[in-house]
Amino acid sequence: MEPKISLCMIVKNEEQNIRRCLKSVAGAVDEIIVVDTGSTDATAEIAREYRARVHFFPWNDNFSDARNASLDLASGDWILFLDADEELAAGSGEALRRLAGGDAVDGYFVQIINYLGSEGYLEPCADLVFRLFRNHKDYRFRGSIHEQIVDVILEKNNRARYRAAEEIVILHYGYLDRQIAEKGKIDRNLTLLKRELAATPGNRLLRYHYGVELYRAKKYKEAAEQLLQAAQGIDPQTIYLPKLLRHIVLSCYAACEYAPALDIIRQGLELFPHYADLYYYGGMICFDRGEYGRAVEFFQQALATPGQPVYFASFYGVRGFRACYQLGRLAEMFLNEDEAMRYYVLSLRDNPSFLPALESIIRLLRPREEPAYAKKCLEQLCDFCSPGAALLLGRMFFQQQAYVPALEYLERGATEGNPDGEISLYRAVCLAQQRRFLEALRILDSFHPAQPLYPLARMNQLLCFWWQGKQRKAKDLAKELFALGLSPDTETVVTLLIGTPGKGKPEAAPGEGGMALLLDILARTLDLGENELASRLLEGLTTDCRRQNAVAVGRIYHRYGYLDAAEHYLEIDRHEHPDCAETLSLLAEIKEKRQEYLAAVELYQRALAVDPGKPQHYMRLIRLYEKMRQSIIQKAEQIFPGPDDAHKILQEAAEK
User: Fold this and answer.
1) Is 110 a member of any domain?
2) Which keywords, in A-to-Z order, does the entry hold (predicted)?
């Protein structure tokens, strides 16, 4: 006779999850026991739809009591326990039936995939958990939270044997950001764990869980203290030790306690020399400390590690796309764009959903300057045939101010369902930046006052008229915007756009939000080639305001190739902040582009003196010296023409 399996659950207000869970066990279990600890939603009704036996149990801040109430009702030979925010993965039901038919073991550790993050981007993290065991009246859970039964079974039956059954897979969604926020899990767990620890201070496993919850609560120093205490004198064979070590490292890292974190990594790698997570986080710490060579070694070692045991609960991608991405960032810091591109491509191929790698690839392709080349490269790398993928790429091009390819992909991905008008607004901006003002205005005019983006649409209409010199229409739109009740900062910027600056003392000094808007308008104005309009806009600012925002303005002028204006504003900032490495480096780049090499060398050297930890300054200086060397050789060849091997002689002399 085939063994009978009972599914035992405890639930509370799980109407959003329980249907998925119960649907996944159809045919895999013989009975469903649901203990409800106080739901006020449709949880119990949904459970009954799946023929569950629902039992109500007053919540008493003790998970074991509730779990044991479900065990008391179970009549099966085996107990499977799940939470409502979990489900059995496809194919696990057959494995469950097969394993329950054996008689060699008393329980199974099964694989669980914890999904982290948000529903828009899920990150899986695998682990082993004890979820299937024989039904015996003496086998009952212990502990008010993070309840355990493994040790209890061994206490009751010292011949009990366990096995890992990784072919049974549980998918867990309870660590998603929304789930945690809605249920207040962290605060609840901290309260229960603290109380339990007060009663059993020597319980190492509880202290580990307490430290993990403190980490989730962003109490990093407290978390590190508790986790270190849990690790003192621990048996190296303890199954959760790798996870404990990783959480100590994470807590120390988040608390900026880098030296202790690296010491734990060193000790951990002595015990687990192939633990990818420790190499990866060692790389992150060294990256933050400016120890770039060591960071590269750590990340490369993470890539070289073999497959991780499930009980390591290794973080998704640390031996793949994440390590590649960090190596790409490091290569960029040393201005090695070819190497950076190689690593970003490897990262994206390992995980096509990893957007930071795609964003970095797009940035390196410089789509604003070379849109056709960037588009060709990306279409060779990725498939953007679906509307969603096209919209994603359109947004990324938009962020890089590459308005021509952005418009193409936004239109390719546009659908009728765009209730908030975001894509329509993006398309209108792209059209305006190509001077297709009539088409842009037609889209912007379709927005109605009930839409959240209506004020932004009207602002863009105003800009279209302003760029065309249609001041009267711009003023009419400004009146409408004022009537909508703008923030004081936005009102200041609108006033600047429709005013006549330059006469008398300037008076406008927008706050932080207003300056962000004004700088965006400045960039778009320069993108259109309207340098005079941009200058007039900035003239409306007070002298102090221009001085305080000089580096940001200079950066924008530099990005769009207006070197004289960029130099003017950067010199203003240099006067105010003579030790700003960014300003010195940007000024050096301008001098270099003008072939004023000695002035550029001096500025790069000053940037190095101010910020010696940034490799970019060294690399730019090295490249400049090489450029100067080649320039000198060319001049020498012009002055001393000779036989065909003159160039070779000069090169050899230069190298000596």
Assistant:
1) yes
2) TPR repeat, Transferase
